[in-house]
Structure formats: structure tokens, C-alpha cells
Amino acid sequence: MPADILADAPFCVWLRHATQNSTATKIQLHSALDGTHMRKVLILLFIFSIAASEADVNVPSCFDNDVVESRKLDLDHFDDVKNGMKRQEIIKLIGNPSCLGGSGIAYDVYLLSDDRRVHLAYSKLPELSWGFVSDSNGNNRIDLF
Q: Is the pTM of this model over 0.90?
């Protein structure tokens, strides 16, 4: 969408355009958009315009076709992950996610060595809300906790 079209666009259209390719930013915006925190949204947009989150700088979108995981992760790596943990704690424990996914609610997705995926959802940042394991197509879900 060209910038001149955004000039007279409603705020929601502009916001959608500004975050269309950044799940990390969507995570931050969803945590601030509860109807009463517009100041937080404006601050987050300012931060977004300066730099991306350090943890997500090199993390691709799960919608990219070329997502590759070089680590040999298995489900045992997630034994200590619990509901309510902070996202940064999980990243320190396991490392950055393989890719970022989700629409509306953002997910950190870890690709396992057996082609399954671990999806960790953050509907109330920074705390983990839920997690599940799926096959490579996102089917056959099994809850982690």
C-alpha cells in the first residue's frame, strides 16, 4: 500500500499496514490494545519505527517457505516450559523460536527434529497462555499443558 493512500486512511488501516509483516510487533500491540491503552500503542509504534525486538531480529515468519531449523530440538527441550512463563524466560531456556506465526494471537513456533512443531501462544504478553504440539501441517494437535 503506497504511503499516499495511508495519508487519509483510518487509524486501523494504518495500524494494519504498519504491522503486516511483523508478528513480534503484533504480539506487543495485542497486549496493549485492550481498549484503554492507546498511549501504550503510540509508544509501541514509535519503538517499532526505531527497531525490531532484539529477540526477533532474525526470526522469520512461519508463512515464509524457506524456514529451516538448524538446531536438533525434540519435545524433551520443552519439559520445563509451563503456562504463565514469561516469553523471555522461554527464549533463555530454549532459544529463539524457529519462526513467528499466528494471526490475531501470536505464536512462537519451534520446529522439532522429527518434523513436528511446538506452538507457544501469548495472548496476554509477556506470559505464555498455552502451547501445543502439531505435525508439520499444523494438524493432530496435542496440548503441552
A: no
